[in-house]
Amino acid sequence: MTVLSVHAPGQEAVTSWATGGPDGPARDLAESLGARTAVLLEGLSDLAAVEALAARRGRDLAAEGVCVVPMGGAMSVGRYAGLLGPPGLGLRLTGLCDEGEQGFYERGLTRAKAPLQDIYVCAADLEDELIRALGTAGVEEILRAEGDFRAWQTFQRQPAQHGRRRHQQVRRFLGTKKGRKIRYGRLLVEALALDRTPPPLDGLLTRL
Q1: CB–CB of 74/98 below 8 Å?
Q2: What letter does residue 140 receive in the DSSP assignment?
Q3: From start to end of the chain, where are the E strands?
Q4: Nearest CA among 6, 16, 13 for reference residue 39
Q5: What is the pTM of this model?
Q6: β-pair partners for 121
Q7: Residue 184 and residue 151 in contact, taking contact as beta carbons nearer than 8 Å
Protein backbone atom coordinates (compact mmCIF):
# COMPACT_ATOMS: atom_id res chain seq x y z
CA MET A 1 0.00 0.00 0.00
CA THR A 2 1.23 3.49 -0.85
CA VAL A 3 0.02 6.35 1.31
CA LEU A 4 1.20 9.95 1.03
CA SER A 5 2.18 10.16 4.68
CA VAL A 6 4.98 11.13 7.03
CA HIS A 7 7.33 8.63 5.39
CA ALA A 8 6.77 9.99 1.89
CA PRO A 9 8.31 12.97 0.06
CA GLY A 10 4.83 14.48 -0.15
CA GLN A 11 4.54 14.80 3.59
CA GLU A 12 7.99 16.39 3.75
CA ALA A 13 6.91 18.95 1.15
CA VAL A 14 3.67 19.73 2.99
CA THR A 15 5.45 20.00 6.35
CA SER A 16 8.10 22.29 4.88
CA TRP A 17 5.40 24.52 3.41
CA ALA A 18 3.48 24.58 6.70
CA THR A 19 6.60 25.70 8.56
CA GLY A 20 7.40 28.57 6.21
CA GLY A 21 9.03 26.87 3.25
CA PRO A 22 8.11 27.28 -0.43
CA ASP A 23 4.76 26.03 -1.68
CA GLY A 24 6.01 24.87 -5.08
CA PRO A 25 7.11 21.31 -4.17
CA ALA A 26 3.82 20.55 -2.39
CA ARG A 27 1.73 22.00 -5.23
CA ASP A 28 3.71 20.14 -7.89
CA LEU A 29 3.48 16.85 -6.02
CA ALA A 30 -0.25 17.21 -5.32
CA GLU A 31 -0.85 17.86 -9.02
CA SER A 32 1.31 14.95 -10.16
CA LEU A 33 -0.42 12.55 -7.76
CA GLY A 34 -3.89 13.81 -8.60
CA ALA A 35 -4.55 14.62 -4.93
CA ARG A 36 -8.17 15.43 -4.18
CA THR A 37 -8.51 14.89 -0.40
CA ALA A 38 -6.34 15.72 2.61
CA VAL A 39 -6.81 13.78 5.85
CA LEU A 40 -5.75 15.95 8.79
CA LEU A 41 -4.55 13.87 11.75
CA GLU A 42 -3.23 15.06 15.08
CA GLY A 43 -0.17 12.83 15.18
CA LEU A 44 1.75 9.72 14.24
CA SER A 45 -0.24 7.22 16.30
CA ASP A 46 -3.38 8.24 14.41
CA LEU A 47 -1.45 7.90 11.15
CA ALA A 48 -0.36 4.38 12.07
CA ALA A 49 -3.95 3.38 12.78
CA VAL A 50 -5.31 4.89 9.55
CA GLU A 51 -2.59 3.24 7.49
CA ALA A 52 -3.21 -0.12 9.16
CA LEU A 53 -6.96 0.00 8.56
CA ALA A 54 -6.50 1.10 4.94
CA ALA A 55 -4.15 -1.83 4.39
CA ARG A 56 -6.61 -4.28 5.95
CA ARG A 57 -9.35 -2.99 3.65
CA GLY A 58 -7.13 -3.27 0.58
CA ARG A 59 -7.10 0.48 0.00
CA ASP A 60 -4.31 2.36 -1.82
CA LEU A 61 -5.02 5.85 -0.56
CA ALA A 62 -2.33 7.64 -2.56
CA ALA A 63 -3.61 6.05 -5.78
CA GLU A 64 -7.08 7.29 -4.81
CA GLY A 65 -5.78 10.85 -4.48
CA VAL A 66 -5.77 10.90 -0.67
CA CYS A 67 -3.00 12.76 1.19
CA VAL A 68 -2.71 11.67 4.85
CA VAL A 69 -1.11 14.40 6.97
CA PRO A 70 -0.05 14.07 10.63
CA MET A 71 0.18 17.68 11.80
CA GLY A 72 2.12 17.33 15.05
CA GLY A 73 -0.81 18.50 17.17
CA ALA A 74 -4.35 19.81 16.77
CA MET A 75 -3.27 23.42 17.25
CA SER A 76 -1.72 23.27 13.76
CA VAL A 77 -5.00 22.44 12.03
CA GLY A 78 -5.76 26.03 11.05
CA ARG A 79 -2.45 26.37 9.22
CA TYR A 80 -2.78 23.03 7.41
CA ALA A 81 -6.43 23.63 6.53
CA GLY A 82 -5.49 26.96 4.99
CA LEU A 83 -2.67 25.46 2.95
CA LEU A 84 -4.42 22.32 1.77
CA GLY A 85 -8.09 23.37 1.73
CA PRO A 86 -10.02 25.97 -0.32
CA PRO A 87 -7.57 28.88 0.27
CA GLY A 88 -4.55 26.79 -0.79
CA LEU A 89 -4.46 23.61 -2.86
CA GLY A 90 -8.25 23.36 -2.93
CA LEU A 91 -8.38 19.81 -1.60
CA ARG A 92 -11.38 18.38 0.20
CA LEU A 93 -10.56 18.26 3.92
CA THR A 94 -11.41 15.46 6.31
CA GLY A 95 -9.83 14.29 9.53
CA LEU A 96 -9.86 12.57 12.88
CA CYS A 97 -9.49 14.32 16.22
CA ASP A 98 -9.73 13.82 19.96
CA GLU A 99 -12.85 15.05 21.71
CA GLY A 100 -10.89 17.69 23.60
CA GLU A 101 -9.37 19.07 20.39
CA GLN A 102 -12.58 19.34 18.39
CA GLY A 103 -12.70 23.10 18.84
CA PHE A 104 -9.33 23.57 17.13
CA TYR A 105 -10.59 21.62 14.12
CA GLU A 106 -13.87 23.50 13.92
CA ARG A 107 -12.20 26.91 14.12
CA GLY A 108 -9.46 25.94 11.66
CA LEU A 109 -11.82 24.56 9.04
CA THR A 110 -14.25 27.43 9.45
CA ARG A 111 -11.46 29.94 8.77
CA ALA A 112 -10.48 27.91 5.70
CA LYS A 113 -14.12 27.93 4.52
CA ALA A 114 -14.16 24.11 4.56
CA PRO A 115 -17.18 22.03 5.64
CA LEU A 116 -17.11 20.46 9.09
CA GLN A 117 -19.18 17.34 8.49
CA ASP A 118 -16.22 15.17 7.48
CA ILE A 119 -14.35 15.57 10.77
CA TYR A 120 -14.68 12.46 12.94
CA VAL A 121 -14.38 12.89 16.69
CA CYS A 122 -13.06 10.21 19.05
CA ALA A 123 -14.43 9.89 22.59
CA ALA A 124 -11.31 10.93 24.55
CA ASP A 125 -8.89 9.82 21.81
CA LEU A 126 -8.31 7.08 19.24
CA GLU A 127 -6.47 4.86 21.73
CA ASP A 128 -9.51 5.02 23.99
CA GLU A 129 -11.75 3.99 21.09
CA LEU A 130 -9.50 1.08 20.14
CA ILE A 131 -9.18 -0.20 23.71
CA ARG A 132 -12.96 -0.22 24.09
CA ALA A 133 -13.35 -2.02 20.76
CA LEU A 134 -10.84 -4.74 21.69
CA GLY A 135 -11.51 -4.91 25.42
CA THR A 136 -8.73 -4.72 27.99
CA ALA A 137 -8.21 -8.50 27.86
CA GLY A 138 -7.66 -8.28 24.12
CA VAL A 139 -5.13 -5.47 24.55
CA GLU A 140 -3.31 -7.48 27.23
CA GLU A 141 -2.97 -10.38 24.79
CA ILE A 142 -1.23 -8.02 22.37
CA LEU A 143 1.02 -6.68 25.15
CA ARG A 144 2.00 -10.24 25.97
CA ALA A 145 2.71 -11.09 22.34
CA GLU A 146 4.84 -7.95 21.97
CA GLY A 147 6.90 -8.64 25.08
CA ASP A 148 5.45 -5.69 27.02
CA PHE A 149 3.39 -7.64 29.54
CA ARG A 150 5.96 -7.51 32.35
CA ALA A 151 6.33 -3.74 31.89
CA TRP A 152 2.53 -3.51 31.97
CA GLN A 153 2.35 -5.42 35.26
CA THR A 154 5.03 -3.19 36.77
CA PHE A 155 3.12 -0.12 35.63
CA GLN A 156 -0.07 -1.39 37.29
CA ARG A 157 1.70 -1.63 40.65
CA GLN A 158 2.61 2.05 40.64
CA PRO A 159 0.79 3.98 43.41
CA ALA A 160 -0.72 6.40 40.89
CA GLN A 161 -2.55 3.51 39.23
CA HIS A 162 -4.19 2.14 42.36
CA GLY A 163 -7.95 2.46 42.19
CA ARG A 164 -8.03 3.35 38.51
CA ARG A 165 -10.14 1.34 36.08
CA ARG A 166 -8.24 -1.19 33.95
CA HIS A 167 -9.29 0.68 30.80
CA GLN A 168 -7.75 3.90 32.12
CA GLN A 169 -4.57 2.09 33.10
CA VAL A 170 -4.14 0.56 29.65
CA ARG A 171 -4.69 3.89 27.94
CA ARG A 172 -2.14 5.59 30.16
CA PHE A 173 0.38 2.76 29.71
CA LEU A 174 0.35 3.16 25.93
CA GLY A 175 1.55 6.73 26.35
CA THR A 176 4.35 6.12 28.85
CA LYS A 177 7.17 5.31 26.42
CA LYS A 178 8.23 7.21 23.31
CA GLY A 179 6.98 5.48 20.19
CA ARG A 180 4.68 3.06 22.02
CA LYS A 181 1.44 4.81 20.98
CA ILE A 182 2.58 4.77 17.36
CA ARG A 183 3.46 1.06 17.44
CA TYR A 184 0.26 0.08 19.18
CA GLY A 185 -1.84 2.32 16.95
CA ARG A 186 -1.00 -0.14 14.21
CA LEU A 187 -1.11 -3.30 16.33
CA LEU A 188 -4.50 -2.62 17.87
CA VAL A 189 -6.07 -1.99 14.47
CA GLU A 190 -4.49 -5.14 13.06
CA ALA A 191 -6.00 -7.17 15.92
CA LEU A 192 -9.53 -5.80 15.48
CA ALA A 193 -12.37 -7.73 13.95
CA LEU A 194 -13.26 -5.42 11.07
CA ASP A 195 -16.87 -5.23 12.21
CA ARG A 196 -15.59 -3.84 15.54
CA THR A 197 -13.78 -0.86 14.01
CA PRO A 198 -14.47 2.23 16.15
CA PRO A 199 -17.11 4.42 14.47
CA PRO A 200 -14.88 7.51 14.00
CA LEU A 201 -12.14 5.49 12.29
CA ASP A 202 -14.64 3.48 10.26
CA GLY A 203 -16.46 6.64 9.18
CA LEU A 204 -13.25 8.32 8.10
CA LEU A 205 -12.09 5.43 5.89
CA THR A 206 -15.57 4.72 4.53
CA ARG A 207 -16.06 8.31 3.37
CA LEU A 208 -12.67 8.67 1.68
Answers
A1: yes
A2: H
A3: 37-41, 66-70, 92-98, 119-122
A4: 6
A5: 0.88
A6: 97
A7: no
Number of residues assigned to the chain: 208
Which amino acid is residue 171, in one-letter code?
A: R
pLDDT (tens digit, 0 to 9) for every residue of the chain, 208 residues total?
A: 334 444 455 666 666 666 666 666 666 666 766 789 999 999 999 999 999 999 999 999 988 989 899 999 999 999 999 989 999 989 999 999 999 999 999 999 999 999 999 999 999 999 999 999 999 999 999 999 999 999 999 999 999 999 999 999 999 999 999 999 999 999 999 999 999 999 999 999 999 9
What 8-state DSSP symbol labels residue 38? E
Query: CA–CA separation, 133 vs 154, rounded Å?
Result: 24
51: left (phi > 0), else alpha (psi -120 to 50), else beta? Answer: alpha
The answer to whether the beta carbons of residues 49 and 130 sit under 8 Å apart is: yes
Rounded Cα–Cα distance for residues 32 and 176 (Å): 40
- The answer to whether 121 and 97 have CB atoms below 8 angstroms apart is yes
- Give CA–CA dist 120/51, Å, rounded: 16
The closest of 83, 100, 107 to 29, measured between CA atoms, is 83
The residues, any chain, with a CB within 8 Å of residue 80's CB and separated by 6 or more, are 14, 18, 38, 40, 69, 71, 108
